[in-house]
Design goal:
The protein is about 50% helix and about 5% strand. By secondary structure, the chain is mostly helical.
């Protein structure tokens, strides 16, 4: 049974962002992310990853084939890209406005990305002139989750 009404927690958002990073970030087409890769990237045990993936599958955020990997559903990809957008906009804001160094901006963005409102996100975007790259050079998805053509490479 699919449990769509259950809240997507900050932890689940981290998993979705990690799955996106492992499976889609550097490729033209989505690939499956391995559970061992997720375990290493997130710093959690493989059994903890398996448990979380089951919960996320029940929420229709991912499709998981045991021993093959994980892919994002349309809903999961939307959530992942929302978090990627927020993270990268926050990095821009912290570096350009508050004068954080890159390392500090990344760490602070990791903490804040789950807690800002849509309005705050849009205000940062407008204040910064709608940047298309974060201070590290990574592309920022627009509010629809789209990237400029070729910007993922």
């Amino acid at each position: 049974m699919v449990n769509i009404g259950k809240k997507v927690t900050a932890s689940k958002e981290d998993y979705l962002k990690a799955i996106w990073s492992l499976s889609e970030r550097h490729t033209e087409t989505a690939q499956e992310a391995g559970t061992n890769d997720l375990s290493a990237l997130l710093g959690v045990s493989p059994p903890a990853v398996s448990k979380m993936l089951k919960q996320m599958e029940q929420q229709a955020l991912i499709a998981h084939t045991p021993y093959r990997g994980v892919s994002l559903t349309k809903k999961g990809r939307q959530v992942a890209l929302k978090i990627v957008r927020r993270h990268r906009l926050l990095e821009c804001f912290l570096v350009e406005v508050l004068k954080y160094d890159l390392h500090e901006a990344h760490d602070e963005s990791e903490r804040l990305e789950h807690h800002i409102s849509h309005r705050f996100e849009e205000q940062i975007d407008a204040l910064l002139g709608h940047p298309d790259r974060c201070p590290h050079g990574s592309p920022i998805p627009n509010r629809n989750g789209d990237f400029r053509s070729g910007s993922l490479r």
